[in-house]
Amino acid sequence: MSAEQTQALIRAYYDAFNREDIPAVLDLLTEDVVHDINQGGQEIGRPQFETFLRHMEGFYREESKDLVIMTTPDGTRAAAEFVVHGAYLKTEQGLPPATGQTYALPVGAFFVIRGGKIARVTNYYNLPLWTKQINAAP
């Protein structure tokens, strides 16, 4: 896969994410996708990724903006930097109470590409910054 094809794949992933089109997101992943969750565990498999996405949609409404995608020349790895704009809809265990607070948070994501699909997704963001934004919201 070329660097350009990988960029298109990652862009399609975020476009589907922004549309909240879970089946389209899942179609871009390998069956054995590895998902490294920010400040959390690691899950393996498309069904686990779907469970994660469905869980998140109950608590958050998010859109990725200002997306920048970087790839290796051979297209096997990619990184994305963006700002996630969101609303905290329902209180998640261990986090502050949700009242519909909004936030804008810089995020970094890293990908491994195999066979034209995403084989690993690793997300990083600053949870204390998110918490500060949530707690400061009126």
TrEMBL record:
One Pfam family of this chain: SnoaL_2
InterPro entries: CHP02096, NTF2-like_dom_sf, SnoaL-like
Domain SnoaL-like, chain residue ranges per copy: 10-121
Protein name in UniProt: SnoaL-like domain-containing protein
Gene3D superfamilies linked to this entry: 3.10.450.50
Top-rank taxon: Bacteria
